[in-house]
Amino acid sequence: MIKTAYRKIRRYMPSASFWLFVSAAIAALLHAGFVFAPAFADFFNEKIAAFFRAVFAHITGWIPFSVAETLVLFVPVIFVAVLVGCIRQAAKGWRRAMYSIVSLLSVIALIYTMFVATFAAGYHATPLEKKLGLPTREVSALELAETAAILAAGMESTLDEVTFRYEGPSVMPYSYGEMSRLLMEAYDRVCDTYPFIQHLDSRIKPITCSEGMTYTHISGVYTMFTGEANLNVNYPDYVLPYTAAHELAHQRGIARENEANFVAFLVCMASEDPYIRYSGYLNMYEYVSSALYSASREYHSMIQGALDLRIYYELRSYRTFFEKYQDNVVADVSETINNSYLVIQGTEGTRSYGMVVDLAVQYLLKNRK
Asked: Would you say the C-alpha torsion 331, 227, 104, 102 has a positive or negative sign?
């Protein structure tokens, strides 16, 4: 009976498509397991998915350019080629047309299976605050101010070792390759401290079309289907190390955006390089300062007014840089797509990026000296 059913199915779909649909069905069962059993999600993310992430990262790691970016650039060509192929197949009869439709659907099944195998479990794993033993509660305006002051002091401790243009932005003193190497060293230290973060020898990949990507307001992206952590290098230098650390956190299975932001901060703090630490302090300061502004203008003015002028010029330079990209349709579409994707994964959408503030406050106040 099973063989008869299989033969009937085979009349309308290629064998590869059949097995891809089977794999997608298995992936759906696993995905449901992640949602209802965080312990299972932890195990899968740290043991099974980590293997696949490492394989993809190593396969594409030796390629000097971003494979993901190349695929995106060829999307129009691929779309036209597929459309022409489907039309030609449909002209040969309805069965050929069904074959084409099923084949396209099986590609979607493959993409879903790869997503579940590499990344989905991270969205349902035990929250980072529980793994770090941090309390879960609302923070006060005073706690935000204290945290902002800690971050400001951390920034100022690095300033004499950072190069700035006159009344302008800071300058990263090395290449992207050297930045990547320094981040790998810092990641090794963090992974030794927190075993749930995957040890992985990889690198960040600069995006060639970074100028165009900036209109989407995306400073970096991890592509789970190629295993690559990609960096928009059009942003000001101080953004780059922290953003690179964020995308490398995704590459290691830290899926939630607030958690990737916080792991990036931990990595920057673990670095022996002053510019990477400066990047971590300043990027986290911006998140906390924004929350403080909403909670208490008075506290915000006190902290902001005490900043070193070099930081003031850095932030002013960023605002000037971003004016060109601030308001555009591409950014609105990108925001909608990203928000929808994150909501589907059970997070707070793009708001989750800013939720790193809660983690930073609890961690820094708990560990302040």
From this structure: negative
Same domain, 234 and 132: yes
Host domain of residue 170: 128-367
State the angle between helix axes of 15-36 and 2-10 in degrees (0 to 180), rounded to the nearest 10.
Answer: 110
Continuous H helices in 119-238: 128-131, 141-158, 176-193, 210-214
Q: Note the pLDDT tens digit of each residue in 252-285.
A: 999 999 999 999 999 999 999 999 999 999 999 9
Distance, in Å, from the CA atom of 171 to the CA atom of 64, rounded to the nearest integer, reads 24
Number of domains in the chain: 2
Which tokens hold the place of 137?
Answer: 């509660």
- Please indicate, yes or no, whether residues 138 and 234 belong to a single structural domain of this protein: yes
Structure tokens at 235: 């942003």
Q: Are residues 116 and 134 in the same domain?
A: no
pLDDT in tens, 30-57: 999 999 999 999 999 999 999 999 999 9
The last residue of a domain, from among 123, 148, 172 = 123
Residues 203, 341 share a domain: yes
Three-state SS letters, 30-95: HHHHHHHCHHHHHHHHHHHHHHHHHHHHHHHHCCCCCHHHHHHHCHHHHHHHHHHHHHHHHHCCHH
Residues 213 and 77 in one domain: no
252 and 210 share one domain: yes
Three-class HEC string of 207-225: CCCHHHHHCCCCCEEEECC
Query: How far apart are alpha carbons 232 and 206 in whole angstroms?
Result: 6
Residues 220, 78, single domain; the answer is: no
**CB neighbours (10 Å) of residue 105?**
15
Supply angle C-alpha 206, 174, 147, rounded to 5. 85
Residues 12, 154: one domain? no
Joined together, the tokens standing for residue 78 give 């691929």
Q: Contact 254/260 with Cβ under 8 angstroms?
A: yes
